Amino acid sequence: MNNKEIVAQAIFDVVKEDLSLETVTQLLENPKSVDHGDVAFPAFSLAKVYRKAPQQIAADLAEKIAGTAFEKIEVVGPYLNFFMNKEMVSQAVIGQIAKEKGNYGDSTVGAKGNVPIDMSSPNIAKPISMGHLRSTVIGNSIAFILEKIGYNPIRINHLGDWGTQFGKLIVAYKKWGTEEAVRTAPITELLRLYVQFHEVAETQPELEEEARAWFKKLEEGDAEATELWQWFRTESLKEFDKIYSMLEVTFDSYNGEAFYNDKMDEIVTMLEEKHLLQENQGAEIVDLTAYDLNPALIKKSDGATLYITRDLAAAVYRKRNYDFAKAIYVVGNEQSNHFKQLKAVLNELGFDWSKDMHHIPFGLITQGGKKLSTRKGKIVLLEEVLNEAVELANKQIMEKNPDLPDREEVAKQVGIGSVIFHDLKNDRLNNFDFVLEEVVRFEGETGPYVQYTHARAMSILRKADFVIDETKEYALNDKESWEVVKLLQKFPDVVMQAAEKYEPSVIAKHSIQVAQAFNKYYAHVKILTDDEQKESRLALVYAMATIIKEDLRLLGLHAPNEM
Ligand code: ARG
Is 352:141 a contact under the CB 8 Å cutoff? Predict the structure, then answer.
């Protein structure tokens, strides 16, 4: 039980006749300052029932509420301030963490339901962008969080590996490309060819026609077109995989847009049967005026399918294949309308499960307040950013702890981790500026700071030769430890909140708070002094390290034992 639940129950036992447990719970407040206790109850709402001044009611209640759960109950005007029994709470919390370890906060609300998470999903033959990075790390963290509350996440990389651009690429490659150039630097070369195509097509519009013809061949399974496309895809994926292995993100499926090539006819037929398709200048559309949305373009006038056509097929496929409890799409905010249209068309088709589909949007990563662009030359190469982060981390570790045994591995965990953490620590819809030096700092609200706090705790435990014993009772009653205890106690609620909002930042913020509270504790209390509380203090250090490590795991970061 959390503190609010304990207080609510205690009040309810006294006012049973007049208020429901739910009402009491809703009325409870978090006092602004620790001097006002841990939970507060305003007595105003009982004034009418009891026909007495709220002050009097508060005083009466305080006398009637019994039990050992509270150190004291203070009456301040119409307010009842509850001070929890620190010894009882800390004993329960530390004891539970000692038993459950990283499983503290697990729940079964997900009932093993499948949740396909559409994440990362870069486009073949183009550099993976900062936006795709965000989708990757946010999706990965949401997967861990949902798994913790009992869902079965399925990480899907819906690769952009289909569409008219592949016709253009084939044309450009056949005209100006060489096998060797593509092999040496696939994405750079393919991007160059793509850019060249557009430049030349400005004066030679017939190229567009050629490109359309090649894409048509590809759609129809022509051998040469398929072989080239397959090759572009394989080479691009090799480069993407470098990033994924640095981030330590794995996927359960790489079924991208091409996978749905043979699954779209069925969708078009369904739309026809329900009389949802309309002709518009030769193209086929679904009118979505009723949803206050632009029409969904299903087929172009030349018969080519579109992004949304493939997403329709993908949604139906995922429902059939995974029978999902919910389906999540972690894709930038700029595609909001696309996902609204997608859900609307599925709803028109009578699929009531479309209500279980959620677009999880996020904001932009900017530089100097400006949007990063992949256009000519201005590509920010993710691999470089990650490598630089590792180097910066390495430099700082060299200064702090030059003899660290596996320094290179730790530098990787800290450097890459810092980029992930920075991405996840703010509400996902916020835009944020990326300044590498800030990201990798060991102080402030950064990943390295949280990791460093964990390592410091581990070093204290090592020094003390402390091993947690789950059969022992550890309890603390000082106000310094109380701040840490409360944050640990809150962890299961924090996980639930993060899951409900699909918001990893809730976890990241918790990890920062725990780290800050712990560092304050460490500064004020001599943990290793030999007295009768020493074991309990060490148990608290152990519990804190366990939860910080779990916070970090849910975000996709390691917690090195030394750094
Ligand atoms: N490839 C797309 C892009 O880079 C993102 C795909 C997102 N997923 C989806 N099912 N539409 O913009």
Answer: no
Which of 119, 132, 331 for a ligand 1 pocket mutation test, highest count of atoms within 8 Å of Cβ? 331
CB atoms within 10 A of CB 398: 12
The DSSP symbol for 294 reads: P
Check whether 379 has a pLDDT greater than 70: no
Q: Which of 163-172, 377-386, 479-488 has the lowest mean pLDDT?
A: 377-386
How many angstroms does the Cα of residue 450 sit away from the middle of ligand 1?
Answer: 32
**Whose Cα sits closest to atom 3 in ligand 1?**
122
| Position 87 pLDDT exceeds 70 | yes
> What is the SS3 assignment for 73?
strand
Strand partners, 82: 39, 73
The alpha carbon of 419 and the centre of ligand 1 are apart by a number of angstroms equal to 22
292 lies in a domain?
A: no
The residue whose C-alpha atom lies closest to atom 4 belonging to ligand 1 is 122
* Ligand 1 atom at minimum distance from 160 CA: 1
Tens digits of residue pLDDT in 460-509: 999 999 999 999 999 999 999 999 999 999 999 999 999 999 999 999 99
* 108/90 Cα distance (integer angstroms): 25
- Kindly indicate whether the ipTM for this predicted assembly is greater than 0.95, answering yes or no: yes
In angstroms, the Cα distances linking 122 to 118, 225, 305 are: 11, 21, 19
Question: For residue 368, how far is its CA from the centre of ligand 1 (angstroms)?
Answer: 26
Q: Among 58, 84, 110, identify where a domain stops.
A: 84
Summarised one tens digit per residue, pLDDT across range 104-149 is 999 999 999 999 999 999 999 998 988 999 999 999 999 999 999 9
- Nearest-CA residue for ligand 1 atom 6 is 121
pLDDT at residue 370 greater than cutoff 80: no
Give residue 435's domain range: 382-555
- Rounded to an integer, what distance in angstroms lies between the CA atom of residue 130 and that of residue 185? 20
168 located within any domain: no
What total number of domains does the chain contain?
2
Overall average pLDDT of the 557-561 stretch = 98
Query: Residue 209 half-sphere exposure, CB side, CA atoms within 13 Å?
Result: 3
Residue 517 lies in a domain: yes
* CA of residue 254 to ligand 1 center, whole Å: 13
Distance 337 CA to ligand 1 centre (A): 13
Ligand 1 atom closest to Cα of residue 342: 11
Predicted confidence band at 365 (pLDDT cuts at 50, 70, 90)?
Answer: confident
* 35: helix, strand or coil: helix
| Residue 172: both structure tokens together | 């450009």
Contacts of 520 (CB under 8 A, 6+ apart): 480, 483
CB 114 within 8 A of CB 154: yes
Find the residues whose C-beta lies inside 6 A of ligand 1.
118, 121-123, 158, 160, 311, 329, 331
Quote the ligand 1 centre to 521 CA distance (angstroms).
46
We report the CATH number of the domain holding residue 51 as 3.30.1360.70
Considering 59, 84, 109, which residue would you say is the last residue of a domain? Answer: 84
Q: Could you tell me if residue 538 is inside a domain?
A: yes
We report the CATH number of the domain holding residue 484 as 1.10.730.10
